[in-house]
Model the fold of this input.
Amino acid sequence: MPVPAAPAPEPDRWYSQEALSGTLVTLVPLQPEHAEGYAAAVRSDGGADQVYRWLGRAPVPVTAELARAEILAALAARARGDRFPFAQLDSGTGEVLGTTSYYEVRPELRTLAIGYTWLGRRWWRTGHNTESKLLLLSQAFDVLAAARVVWHTDVLNERSRAAIERLGATFEGVLRKHRIRADGTWRDTAQYAMTDEDWPAARDRLRASLSR
Done:
């Protein structure tokens, strides 16, 4: 017999966007004052084109002015309750590394999505992304009592899909003509999800990965 779904114990907390701190990375609510560091992270190691290739947004924010405009757009989405953006900061230096967000936040269903994520080329394969996702997932499952966390990515973005799969998420299918890319073409989206039943094993793997 199906088990009734329990409601989120503190639904208002899902919208509070608390700062999350780790050894490598700290996540804080994104603010306009992050603009200069945001642009510097996009340009790091000459990786702007790689970082923004699949993000579906233009122009690439390689200047503080463009970065500020993108941040203000993200904050407008936050005001609407559509997206809750974080700046990813290096815990040691305070440098901006990139950004990530919660979106599709639905406390009544105990579900949310993680996305709008990028990390400057300089910090790829350093453990920062792994710890960032561990912080976001720990907040979702252990603090908010989420039942399900979702990811969306371009079906052609093999690097992103591999990274999501390494987190322990399950591929659920393709959403056809789901979004529009920066070049105006239709994007098919690969959808992944992790449930609260999946989380303990995924958490242990992520912790083990960081310890290495």
Q: What stands out?
A: The two ends are 43 Å apart (CA to CA).
